[in-house]
Amino acid sequence: MLPRPLIALDLGATRVTCAVGLPRERAPGADVLGTALAPFDQAAETWLNDPLLVGRTIEQALDATGVTTDAHRALVSFSHPSAVSEQIRAMIQLADEPIAVRQQDLRRLETTALHQVLPVDREAVIVERLGCDGNGFQGVRDPRGLPATQLSGTFHLVTTPLAARRAMTQAVESAGLEVAWMTTSLQATAAALAADDGTRQHRCVLIDVGGLTTNLGLLIEGRLQRARTIRWGGVPLLREVASALGLTTEEALPLSQQGLASRRAEVKHAVHAGLEQVRQGLAEMLDSAAKPDGLLLAGRTALLDGVAEWLEHATKIPTRLARSPHAHGTDLAGQMALQPALGLLALATAAGPAHPAAAHGWFDRAVAQTRTLLTEYF
């Protein structure tokens, strides 16, 4: 059976980017058939405040790719202002005598970890197993086959409100598509950059400066270990410049895009204030962690004059733009915007991918918890 094309959508604050790819039959990855970027008809005041508008924009982006396909399921990435990242530990009992760790044991360990932190109104969009401990082993990511009587593990979770999924699902379905799975734009961008030497450094930080938010992620050997969301981006910067100068957002737009090269003190002050938030968020995310080897900047707002130089000077960490080798055929801003959609294709077609988490809604968690109790006590 021939593979069917995949539709990847990144839902941003000001636009939708779309990539259509055909999975390769005998190798990981996908051949990109078409890409497109479609801006919203009106600027977003809040995150995904009009699902029907987003749905129409998805249709425009899909049409603009020039690809005709009967595919009806979409891979979706997004960045939400209320995303929360945390590391947690969980433990389960396996047996009185050592037995080999099985796949179902790892699933039960993950379910136990989710029960500890997920309230009923949130779900996990990323569940990354960082390492497991057992009898005679420690920090093993995949302990299957190793003997143990009990198993503990450390997980990195990124959670978002359940209302976010409902809004995105409504937007995608209004465009005639179904949501196959979803993850964060940060995770998708990291996947797009996997072929770039920068993400294979032992430790690097990816900074994705978007429309409404800036997302920070610590990557260790290409895996997302920590993350943080800052409520600053191109749209808040534009509003601040417009307010400070008494201009409409249309009049303030070209001034805000000058970044630190602007001759207007109000513009420089607004950019400085936002970047200081990013610097503080970076320091809080890293906390006691070792200093990273480099900072990789993604997102169209990262292209503002002086942003990379300011962050490198403020953090004393080498900083450069993060560019996927597969994003081409458009200007630099367009290439930056396309990276999450291309990363979705990479995640979906990787050999043995550390795929994004399935939805963990309250009903799914209740069923899983019942199954866990039956397994442990009966």
List keywords for this structure.
378 residues, alpha/beta, 5-stranded mixed sheet, 36% helix, 29% strand, globular, disordered C terminus
Major sheet: order of its strands? 3-2-1-4-11
Please give the radius of gyration in angstroms: 21 Å
On the 0 to 100 scale, the average pLDDT is: 88
CATH topology of the domain at 197-322: Nucleotidyltransferase, domain 5
Entry summary:
The protein is of the alpha/beta class and 378 residues long.
Describe the structure.
It is built from 10 helices and 16 strands. It is an alpha/beta fold and 378 residues long. Among the domains are: 96 residues, Dna Ligase, domain 1; 126 residues, Nucleotidyltransferase, domain 5. Helix 2 crosses helix 10, helix 4 packs across helix 9 and helix 5 packs across helix 6.
